[in-house]
């Protein structure tokens, strides 16, 4: 039965994108931000020719250390644009298209009416002009990165992997890699300069781009949220840095920052997504081990944010029934599904929803009615009804942790959490094959350990239809910040 639900949930594929309408773009282009201009002393003599590669530098200038930005603005854009930040050894191309030619994340979000700004950080891609004196040495390293990025263990692909497994796509993927010629302190300066130019925005980071994302968000209050895909590093308040986590690839340690600076991260919504093939215990596989320690430190980071009153959520995709994702989630075969998850989080967490009356189809209304009945049964502690509704392998993700069906039923029956009332807003439903997903924004009043509390949540419910009946496969709570007008 477990294999059955895994197979069902994995059936969410790229078929959804084949019938999409063309994207209507109001404006697009590119520009550079930040960087420096080096001016040599003296007067330039344009009567002398030394050579094409060798110059008499006297009196000449040299612009370098900037970031390159490619932007697209759709017709009727949503309020806040998305700024995409790549990781180590790559460029913004990882957001723009997949190795097998499908829409990348920036295009998928453009279709959802988000303005997109895709960066090549200093020293990478289109921004390769650097002030550093460097020598780029060819290094044969592709098999190493195949392992590190959890595509598999060379030459074998991971079982059920969402990465395209044909040789042409793999070659295209490796050809996206670029030399890294930057001083990474320039990354934060570049992100800050872009933020000053375009105004309020949401940062969407990947891997090594995660750390400069945290730093930029602490530096500039015009950053109104951070979405981090498998970030590689984290910050903690001084005096609260967890012990380093050792691992086969060198482990990971938190970076201390002043508490006042860290607290700025508690004022914006944050969500982190991690993919599959990440073990809980030490592994001899390089990729598994590298991301085991970073995921575990990420849990501590989220706990620190929330302990200080913030709103951070960690989504481990296998725990909500999404399997097979590599480190490059945004390029995997199910990237449309992940873009839908991002859209829902953005709509609710940072106020991007365009509120309007909506008429639901009969099938959509059926699922909404089941979802509403579930809240009533939870309020009544009707574990018999819930027992039938919950799938055998259902997962429940709360702020305090995640657990399975039996633990959730016991929690409800024992009264440790009593779901008294859910005030439901902004419901939407999406279907793929025999999977239905209900997204809702709620204010939930609960009794927790004897105390009554009311919090706003974004709730994602994944239902699976088996033998003609809908069953709840996963229920994910994401706590939201109450927003003020100037946010």
From TrEMBL:
<dbReference type="InterPro" id="IPR027843">
    <property type="entry name" value="DUF4440"/>
</dbReference>
<dbReference type="Pfam" id="PF12697">
    <property type="entry name" value="Abhydrolase_6"/>
</dbReference>
<dbReference type="InterPro" id="IPR029058">
    <property type="entry name" value="AB_hydrolase_fold"/>
</dbReference>
<keyword id="KW-0378">Hydrolase</keyword>
<dbReference type="InterPro" id="IPR000073">
    <property type="entry name" value="AB_hydrolase_1"/>
</dbReference>
<dbReference type="InterPro" id="IPR050228">
    <property type="entry name" value="Carboxylesterase_BioH"/>
</dbReference>
<protein>
    <submittedName>
        <fullName>Alpha/beta fold hydrolase</fullName>
    </submittedName>
</protein>
<dbReference type="Pfam" id="PF14534">
    <property type="entry name" value="DUF4440"/>
</dbReference>
<dbReference type="GO" id="GO:0016787">
    <property type="term" value="F:hydrolase activity"/>
</dbReference>
<feature type="domain" description="DUF4440">
    <location>
        <begin position="370"/>
        <end position="472"/>
    </location>
</feature>
<dbReference type="InterPro" id="IPR032710">
    <property type="entry name" value="NTF2-like_dom_sf"/>
</dbReference>
<feature type="domain" description="AB hydrolase-1">
    <location>
        <begin position="82"/>
        <end position="301"/>
    </location>
</feature>
């Amino acid at each position: 039965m477990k294999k059955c639900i895994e197979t069902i949930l994995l059936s969410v594929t790229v078929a959804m994108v084949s019938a999409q309408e063309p994207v209507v773009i109001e404006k697009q282009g590119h520009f550079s931000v930040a960087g420096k201009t080096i001016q040599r002393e003296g007067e330039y003599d344009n009567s002398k020719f030394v050579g094409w590669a060798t110059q008499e530098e006297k009196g000449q200038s040299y612009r370098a250390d900037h970031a390159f930005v490619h932007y697209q603005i759709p017709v009727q854009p949503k309020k806040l644009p998305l700024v995409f930040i790549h990781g180590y050894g790559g460029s913004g191309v990882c957001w723009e298209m997949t190795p097998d030619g499908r829409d990348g994340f920036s295009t998928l979000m453009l279709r959802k009416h988000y303005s997109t700004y895709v960066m090549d950080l200093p020293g990478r891609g289109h921004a390769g002009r650097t002030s550093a004196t460097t020598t780029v040495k060819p290094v044969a390293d592709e098999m190493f990165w195949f392992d590190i990025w959890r595509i598999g263990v060379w030459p074998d692909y991971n079982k059920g992997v969402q990465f395209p497994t044909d040789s042409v796509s793999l070659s295209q993927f490796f050809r996206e890699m670029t030399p890294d010629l930057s001083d990474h302190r320039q990354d934060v300066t570049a992100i800050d300069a872009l933020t000053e130019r375009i105004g309020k925005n949401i940062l969407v980071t990947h891997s090594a781009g995660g750390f400069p994302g945290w730093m930029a968000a602490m530096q500039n209050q015009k950053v109104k949220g951070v979405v981090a895909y498998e970030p590689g590093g984290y910050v903690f308040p001084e005096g609260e840095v967890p012990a380093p986590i050792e691992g086969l690839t060198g482990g990971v340690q938190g970076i201390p920052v002043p508490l006042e600076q860290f607290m700025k991260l508690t004022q914006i919504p944050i969500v982190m997504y991690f993919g599959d093939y990440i073990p809980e215990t030490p592994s001899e596989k390089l990729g598994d081990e590298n991301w085991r320690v970073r995921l575990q430190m990420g849990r501590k980071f989220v706990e620190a944010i929330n302990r200080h009153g913030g709103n951070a959520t960690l989504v481990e995709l296998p725990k909500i029934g999404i399997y097979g994702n590599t480190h490059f989630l945004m390029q995997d075969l199910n990237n449309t599904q992940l873009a839908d998850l991002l859209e829902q989080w953005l709509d609710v967490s940072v106020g991007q929803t365009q509120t309007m009356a909506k008429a639901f189809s009969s099938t959509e209304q059926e699922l909404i009615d089941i979802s509403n009945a579930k809240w009533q049964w939870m309020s009544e502690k009707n574990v018999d009804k819930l027992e039938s509704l919950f799938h055998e392998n259902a997962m429940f993700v709360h702020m305090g942790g995640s657990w399975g069906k039996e633990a959730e039923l016991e929690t409800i029956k024992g009264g440790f959490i009593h779901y008294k009332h859910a005030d439901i807003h902004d419901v939407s439903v999406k279907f793929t094959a025999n999977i239905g997903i209900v997204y809702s924004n709620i204010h939930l009043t609960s009794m927790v350990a004897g105390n009554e509390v009311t919090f706003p949540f974004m709730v994602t419910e994944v239902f699976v239809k088996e033998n003609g009946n809908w069953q709840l496969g996963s229920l994910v709570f994401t706590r939201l910040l109450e927003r003020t007008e100037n946010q």
